[in-house]
Structure prediction request, 360 residues.
Amino acid sequence: MPILTYPEAMFVGLLQGVTELFPVSSLGHSVLIPAIIGGSWGQDLSVSRPESPYLAFIVGLHVATAAALICYFWRDWVRIIGGLVSSIRYRRVVTANERLAWLIILATIPVGIAGLALEHAFRVFFSKPVPTALFLCVNGLILLASERRQRARVAAGLQPQALAQAQRAPQYQQAPQYQHEQYQRDQRHPQGEWHDQPQQQQRGRDWHPQDERHPQEQAERTEHAVAADRRLSAMGYRRAILIGATQIAALLPGISRDGIVTVASMRTGLSRQDAVRYSFLLSTPVILAAGVLKIPDLFGPLGAGIGGQVVVGSVLSFIGAFLSVRFLTKYFGESKSLRPFGIYCLAAGLFSLFFVLAFR
Prediction:
């Protein structure tokens, strides 16, 4: 049985961390690049072989990528999880954080069920160079078509529906009388009741010494995140489930999870920035669950002899994912387009298809 080498582990770890969050399909790159390199790489890094140590190695990479997302968005997850806890405790769904928590849970259910039922079949039958290259081309066309439609909407003067929906959302309505006191507390600024007080007094549950170096930047980021989550929480449950269900397509190698969720969210009226943020929030539990559910493979026969490779690859995957989400958040925060990623996917897919058919 081929054993994963350290150079392979380092390369794939960094590749996974970067491409998992870019809308270019990490699984597609994990299939195509080893196939193009060939030799031992093509054998050791085959995801379609059922008994490959590579499958156990991927478990560590998924957990590391999810950990990077949690670290970057930890303040947001504190608010969202706090909303879930208060929702269960008080048996209500009235605040933005409470509603968003349930929207994420419901949106994750379809891909969770599909992943358990179809992941093995999809990986064995489709995780081969030719179909993967074709799916990567399809992913590029989807991104390009979405941007074309978005430009047409802007040219026609049509704005995202999120703001209007947010104004009608239940969390902005009056809470029942018996919940009034708690509701008033929850409707305060999510960073605490001291939002309007001087910065030096804002040392509460979300304060970190690093924030003192860039207090204004951190305050602006938090304010934007809170506003975005309020808009996202205005989505209906049906809409959130439909968007979440599009992640099932990402079981096909070459189709990006973040890309397909972003496109679907924009198609339903979200702005590009909110759509990208929602894709990151949905990715976290899905990627984490994909890793955690397969941890037995990591500690079973498939993981024997590759413990060091898993650690090295996971560290690089964490670093790559953290830097990627930091870059992409800033990139899309400046209203940048999905078009470059669409062009890249189309070009990479066509090149891979030509190379594999001509030389392999």
Q: What stands out?
A: The radius of gyration is 21 Å.
